[in-house]
Amino acid sequence: MLVLCYPKCSTCRKALDYLNDRGISYDLRDIKEENPSQAELRQWWQASGLPLKKFFNTSGLQYKALGLKDRLPTMTEDEQLALLATDGMLVKRPLVVGEDFVLTGFKQADWDEKIR
Known about the structure:
The protein is 41% helix and 12% strand.
């Protein structure tokens, strides 16, 4: 299982505590240092079954500075994926990629259901 996090993010720290407390092994990747590629994002988005907007960190400074609330609806999926691939801080975190699931953000009920 791959976990993409930003070390200074309190939600990411909660998510890692969740995994560590349960003895669940994972590979950790700093989303700011090693931004996901457009190909990775496309694959994960398609595997997730989620709307692409769920992959955006809508509460982030960069999202607001770029005015993405208004811009996203007019952008194509390719344009959105390309934008996400430019800056890890635009990506919702933590982003967890398992064998048969992808989770964005940390909602314990979702994690309880998917992560074993």
